[in-house]
Amino acid sequence: MKPNVILVDDDKDTLEIFEDYLELKGVNVLATGKNGKEAVELYLRHKPDVVLLDVMMPEYDGFFALKNIRERDPSAKVVMVTADMTEQTRNRLQILKASGILYKPYEINTVIETIEKVKEGQSVIAVKSKVTKYTPLC
């Protein structure tokens, strides 16, 4: 069964390309958004299998969205997408209980594998073409 996802990124071109690639790979993109506030609204409206959420966005960022989605649905599966490989960001995402972290630049097959693993309930960190398991801080 095709996984249902929501994509949220403030870069319109990235969002369009990402959506096209995912759909070509058999992922059903239910909706797209451009900030963290929209991410929360779209999550509540669509209840996707997985949310792919950019961390750094103006106004309402990915941290805002992750926190608010978690407050409304602790079992939500949210993969954070970021180029920020600092320990501070990773720790913050783990504290907020991200289901996974996908580091840019990424390969589309790594994205697909990450979606599948997170949908199955696994937590992952994906760096370029390598997916590794991790345990989030509780």
Kindly state the mean pLDDT as a whole number?
90
How many extended strands? Answer: 7
Shape descriptor: globular
- Give me the Rg, rounded: 13 Å
If strands are numbered along the chain, what order do they take across the biggest sheet?
2-1-3-4-5-6-7
C-alpha end-to-end distance: 30 Å
Low-confidence segments, ≥5 residues, pLDDT <50? 134-138
Biggest sheet record: 7 strands, mixed
Note the total helix count: 5
Class derived from helix and strand content: alpha/beta
Strand content: 15-25%
Provide the succession of SSEs: EHEHEHEHEHEE
Q: Which percent bin holds the helix content? A: 40-55%
Report on the structure:
The chain is built from five helices and seven strands, in the order βαβαβαβαβαββ. It has helices at 12-24, 36-46, 62-72, 87-95, 108-119, and strands at residues 4-8, 28-33, 50-54, 78-82, 100-103, 124-127, 130-133. The longest helix is centred in the N-terminal third of the chain and has 13 residues, at 12-24. The N and C termini lie far apart (30 Å). The model is unreliable at 134-138 (pLDDT under 50).
